[in-house]
Amino acid sequence: MEGANALTFMLSWVSHTDVQDRDYKFLRKAVEEVYEGVECGDGGPFGAVVVQNDQVVVSCHSMVLKNTDPTAHAEVTAIREACKKLKQTELSDCEMYASCEPCPMCFGAIHLSRIKRLVYGAKAEAAIAVGFGDFSADASRGTGFYQKAQLDIKRADSCRTGL
Ligand SMILES: [Zn+2]
């Protein structure tokens, strides 16, 4: 996918009032990672940030191409890096901000890491619209399951990130 498409992808967010201003601050950071990842050619246009006590622990983007690893999605990479940095296998006191609705694998990782809250920007459908396969997006429609599992999930869906 080209950078211009990634930009359109992120700008497709519409205003949503359900997400707090602090959420936008961290979402913006996740979107910055999108641009960095695309620029470096590390992977697709996806970014994820792990936040603990209002501080960014790690800020990552997809490393699928760089690591030739189909599981190196931004969210999984962020969880791995955050756990390493915090020297713990649970992130129950952390929140995740993802540029796009996580795929099933990432939801699984988020679930296992016990991250307490997830805020994401674009819907998975937006990724399909700009050329990403729908097989991962299809399965990510099961977010209700994770919401039941005590994970607070919010869709930010806004252009208020200022990009
Ligand atoms: Zn994923």
What do these coordinates show?
It comes from Malus domestica (Apple). One of its GO terms (biological process) is purine nucleoside catabolic process. GO terms for molecular function: guanosine deaminase activity; zinc ion binding. Keywords: Hydrolase, Metal-binding, Zinc. This protein is of the alpha/beta class and 163 residues long. The protein has one domain (21-155): Cytidine Deaminase, domain 2 (3-Layer(aba) Sandwich), CATH 3.40.140.10. Helix content is 43%, strand content 18%. It contains 7 helices and 5 strands, in the order ααββαβαβαααβ. Strands 2-1-3-4-5 form a 5-stranded mixed β-sheet. β3, α4 (104-113) and β4 (117-122) form a beta-alpha-beta unit. Residues 6-17 and 135-140 have low confidence and may be disordered. It binds zinc ion (ZN). Zinc ion is lined by residues 73, 75, 102-103, 105-106.
Compile the SSE list and pairings.
Blueprint: H1 3-11, H2 21-40, E1 47-52, E2 55-61, H3 74-86, E3 94-100, H4 104-113, E4 117-122, H5 124-129, H6 134-139, H7 143-148, E5 152-155
Parallel strand pairs: 3-4, 4-5
Antiparallel strand pairs: 1-2, 1-3
Helix pairs in contact: 1-2
Bound molecules: zinc ion.
GO molecular function, one term: zinc ion binding
Organism: Malus domestica
Family: Belongs to the cytidine and deoxycytidylate deaminase family.
